[in-house]
Amino acid sequence: MTDKPLHPRTRAVHHGIRRSQYGEMAEALFMTQGFSYDSAEQAEARFIKVGDDEFIYARYGNPTSRMFEDRIANLEGAEDAFATASGMAAVNGALMSFAKPGDHIVSAKALFGSCLYVLDVLARFGVEVTYVDGTDLDAWRAAIRPTTRAVFFESVSNPTLELVDIAGVAELAHAVGALVIVDNVFATPVYSQAIAQGADVVVYSSTKHIDGAGRCLGGVICGTKQFVREVAEPYLKHTGAAISPFNAWIMLNGLTTLDLRVRAMSETASAFATALQADPALKVIYPGLESHAQHDLAMRQMGAGGTMVAVDVGSKERAYSAMNKMKIFQISNNLGDAKSIVTHPSTTTHSRLSPEVQAGLGITAGLLRLSIGLEDADDLLADFREALA
Question: Which pTM value belongs to this model?
Answer without folding.
Answer: 0.94
